[in-house]
Amino acid sequence: MENIKALDEAYVAHTYGRFPVTLVRGEGSLAYDEEGKEYVDMGCGIAVNSFGYSDSLWAEAVKEQLTRLQHTSNLYYTAPCARLAQLLCQRTGMKKVFFGNSGAEANECAIKVARKWAQENKGKEYATIITLKNSFHGRTLTTLAATGQEHYHELFQPLTPGFVHAEPGNLEDMERLLKENRAAAILVECIQGEGGVIPMDSDYLRGVEKLAETYHVLLMVDEVQTGNGRTGTYMAYMHAGIHPDVVSTAKGLGGGLPIGACRMGERVQDVLGAGDHGSTFGGNPVVCAGALSIVERLDEAFLRSVREKGDFIRQSLEGRPGVAGVFGRGLMVGVEPDPAFGKTAGEIVGECLRKGVMFLTAKNRVRLLPALNIPMETLRKALNVLLEVMGEKA
Length: 394
Ligand SMILES: *Cc1c(COP(=O)(O)O)cnc(C)c1O
Fold this sequence. Notes:
Bound molecules: pyridoxal-5'-phosphate
Low-confidence stretches: none
Radius of gyration: 21 Å
Number of domains: 2
CATH topology of the largest domain: Aspartate Aminotransferase, domain 2
Helix content: 25-40%
Structural class: alpha/beta
Distance between the termini: 36 Å
């Protein structure tokens, strides 16, 4: 067998710290490496494989479209793209969708919408986008500028200008920035994912909505990680009952294929016109056919099962030895290790991997993003391994 690890290290850019595992196949919430060792996957490709590996409905939809028409330019209509856009609007009450290929692209679109809307409705100088400190919005130079974490910025100056960062959870700081800047929009995550699974409370999100109204700026929500059923509602902003103007999403939408979507509400639905934005692959029919099979299944009964599994995770972990706190919502969970037990989140994840369970980290927390349809028995098994590792002092 070829040494994949050596090959990868020789030829793939070293932008990732990889675990010492080469995955070759998966089924549901289980993945297998080169030697046939089985892992429970509690990260599902960072919230991407919404229904796990080789989900039969998704795979059928993809295969069917793949052998019919794999791609056409955006100069022609295709049914999967149009149907998916309709479904994404029906599920949210929003009016238009732009498709790209990633979360960063979905956010780029949101930012372009905000800038053009403000230019036409407020004046050219109203270009500032307010995001939150500790946020994550992507890796392109513009979405990096939106990302409120200095350490991502340092090596790549100058970034796109026109971004300022408010203290999360602090409405006074948001209002101060609205007064000090000529703002076009506010862009927030309902739960900061890469930032450490840090939920914004509903009162704060409603306060932000009110401020956006008062200062006449757009309210935009980054649902790249929290969307598509992940937190137990179709979109995470629905927990707070707010009505954003723009909602970006990606990750779990495609069930494992690259897609990003930027949804636009009533007052911004016609901001982007012909030639204002584009993407060669955006709205690809194979990817959209797969995404349709995902979103169609996120009905109320299914979302309830996501909430129940989330509650089960919290009940299983809260107050147990080695666990300092459990954060998040639905099947997006961050577990903070008790420092008295002497293990970092990274060390815990490494130990769990050796015991056959794949977790993620987010800052100083162990992050759980299992497939939304993970069987209870598999979930229980993964949590037992986590409790065993966290409850044992270093
Ligand atoms: C992952 C993520 C992104 C970036 O998505 P990519 O598909 O990697 O470009 C943006 N925003 C949030 C909240 C994310 O979690």
